[in-house]
Design a protein that fits this description.
alpha+beta, CU044_5270 family protein, CU044_5270-like
């Protein structure tokens, strides 16, 4: 069984990637084999499957790239130089309320070398079993840690310029909505260029195969889910969503922990709506969901392209099928890897 056979086995409940992505992914896998191996992180079924599929899907490059030179870190170069879309009032209104609440709290002063702890709950899309993931990161993205197969905390080095996304994305990020939107699109453009140059390594997955705007939304979604984000940074990220065409506000969505709130959502070309769920009262981030908004059937394959599944039984997803459900259960600044109790954000 080669890498693509393994993908076929794992992706039964995930929309297929295109033939172009398959070809590019194989090249990336070969390149990755030449990269020194890092210690294994213990992750649950949803995270492992989503990470693999997203890394392969991210091999497609779409959208318009607007970049200017090489920056010193993720999202920290000269930045996005194009025109932003007009802010969408409904999304901006929620972000403004979140900012009002965040401004009532003391100003944040964070050491880039500080460690943050993040605990997430993820539902496996086939069995619906829940997996709890624990991760630690330094705020500069240079070090991170996880629980290995033997239950020990393993620390290894990050590479913020290659890892996508990285906690370093939030270093020196603007706290205003428009500035954060430019910061987000600058990082997406860097990712797209990095995919072309094979200098990007997708650890969590920012899928660029469905357009630049969906990629911008996905970047915001993954940063909120995976890293420590202060209330002001949360509000700025919500505000950035207002500048992404197609983002809407959805009422009464539940995360993997059963907590209800409202959500920001964007629907891609395969009728999958990706959602960022927040508390309707406190505006704290809760989790994510992805759901089919229409019935979807796997398209036929071009001649000469081997399908990932049985052509006689294409993948089908009825409207309303949930293919991703997560919850961020805890997040905060801690004294080091393995620590979980020292202050910070706690949704």
């Amino acid at each position: 069984m080669d890498e693509l056979d393994l993908l076929a086995e794992l992706r039964r409940d995930t929309p297929r990637i295109s033939p172009a992505a398959t070809t590019a992914a194989r090249a990336r896998l070969i390149e990755a084999m030449e990269t020194p191996e890092r210690p294994t992180r213990q992750v649950g079924p949803v995270a492992w499957r989503a990470g693999l599929v997203a890394a392969l899907a991210a091999a497609i490059v779409t959208g318009t790239v607007v970049t200017e030179g090489d920056g010193p870190g993720p999202g920290r170069g000269p930045g996005f130089t194009g025109m932003l879309s007009a802010a969408q009032p409904a999304v901006a209104a929620v972000a403004d309320r979140a900012r009002t609440v965040a401004d009532r709290e003391p100003a944040d002063s964070l050491d880039p070398t500080a460690w943050a702890y993040v605990e997430t709950l993820q539902r496996e899309s086939q069995s619906h079993e829940m997996s709890t993931l624990s991760d630690w990161y330094t705020l500069d993205g240079l070090h991170y840690a996880g629980v290995d197969d033997s239950g020990r905390i393993t620390v290894f080095n990050g590479e913020p310029l290659r890892d996508v996304p990285s906690q370093a994305f939030l270093l020196d990020a603007p706290n205003d909505a428009e500035g954060m939107a430019r910061h987000v699109y600058a990082e997406v453009d860097r990712i797209i260029q990095g995919e072309r140059d094979h200098t990007i390594r997708g650890e969590i997955g920012v899928d660029t195969s469905r357009g630049r705007d969906v990629a911008a939304f996905t970047l915001v979604k993954q940063v909120l889910l995976s890293f420590y984000v202060t209330p002001r940074q949360q509000a700025a990220l919500y505000g950035a969503l207002a500048y992404i065409p197609g983002v809407t506000v959805i009422d009464d969505v539940a995360d993997a922990a059963g907590r209800h709130g409202q959500a920001f959502g964007i629907t891609d070309s395969q009728s999958v709506r990706s959602e960022i769920i927040i508390d309707s009262r406190t505006y704290r981030y809760l989790g994510t969901r992805a759901i089919f908004t229409e019935d979807w059937t796997e398209p036929s394959h071009p001649p000469g392209i081997a399908p990932d599944s049985d052509p006689a039984h294409p993948l089908r997803f009825p409207k309303g099928t949930v293919i991703e459900l997560t919850a961020k259960m805890a997040s905060g600044i801690v004294s080091g890897p393995g620590e979980r109790e020292e202050g910070g954000e706690s949704p």
